[in-house]
Design goal:
Number of helices: 0
Distance between the termini: 17 Å
Radius of gyration: 17 Å
Helix content: under 10%
CATH superfamily: Jelly Rolls
Order of helices and strands: EEEEEEEEEEEEEEEEEEEEEE
Number of domains: 1
CATH architecture: Sandwich
Number of strands: 22
Shape: globular
CATH topology: Jelly Rolls
Oligomer: single chain
């Protein structure tokens, strides 16, 4: 097993006033040649958007883009004709494929928006752009990991154009947990959304992460009520 700990304070950071953002990998003005991507995982941004603010229309292509809303809601519009609001406990995915444009705004006049945005390189390039979003009951992942994104087109998770899996778990203190790799050779990027968790013998605090490869499972021991995000991706 190979591991690398990424402390929350080691991430790239930018404060634009209306947007406070942390980058786990090189993005925009944050460029770190040692942290460009983790296998097929290209971006993990931790964003807080002020009330009434957001990202104007901008393009993407050949990228799987996943948005997980942690607090508040985000209003989405795109060139495919989709207009929607993604709320807390909802997950959105776009297969940008041959190319799309979209905008993302915080529609609230008073409440800030907190979200995670994840970019994963696609398995198949230049596909027809595709959009989906889904609500997941907040208690569905209680003391267990449940998949919100996977390559399984028939399950309850949202389909992704890659052999990648995104799962979330909310664990009580002292509940031991194990994540088993779905596809041999994949690596996992573990991100602590909240709480304090011991992973691979290391204590991780809120927004800390660990990248793990060359294993078939990883165990967790939360020492507080904790929410854990696991991103499993091909390494090449």
């Amino acid at each position: 097993m190979k591991t690398e700990i990424i402390k929350a304070s080691d991430r790239g950071h930018a404060d634009h006033g209306w947007l406070k953002t942390y980058h786990s990998f090189s993005f925009a003005d944050y460029q770190n040649p040692e942290r460009v991507h983790f296998g097929m995982l290209r971006v993990l941004n931790d964003d807080t958007v002020a009330a009434g603010k957001g990202f104007g229309t901008h393009p993407h292509e050949n990228m799987e883009i996943v948005t997980i809303v942690l607090k508040g809601s985000v209003e989405h519009k795109d060139s495919m004709g989709n207009t929607s609001v993604i709320k807390t406990h909802e997950v959105q995915i776009m297969s940008a494929g041959t190319g799309i444009t979209h905008s993302e705004f915080n529609p609230s006049g008073t409440e800030e928006l907190q979200l995670l945005q994840i970019w994963i390189f696609p398995k198949e390039r230049d596909i027809e752009p595709r959009y989906d979003q889904r609500f997941f009951q907040p208690d569905f992942r209680r003391n267990r990991f449940d998949f919100v994104v996977s390559p399984d087109e028939t399950g309850e998770s949202i389909w992704i154009n890659q052999d990648a899996y995104i799962s979330m778990g909310r664990y009580a203190r002292g509940i031991n947990a194990t994540y088993k790799i779905k596809k041999p050779g994949n690596g996992i990027y573990v991100f602590i959304i909240s709480g304090k968790v011991t992973v691979v013998g290391k204590v991780l605090d809120e927004r800390d992460a660990v990248a793990v490869t060359e294993t078939d499972k990883v165990s967790f021991v939360p020492s507080t009520e904790s929410e854990i995000l696991v991103i499993e991706v091909p390494m090449n």
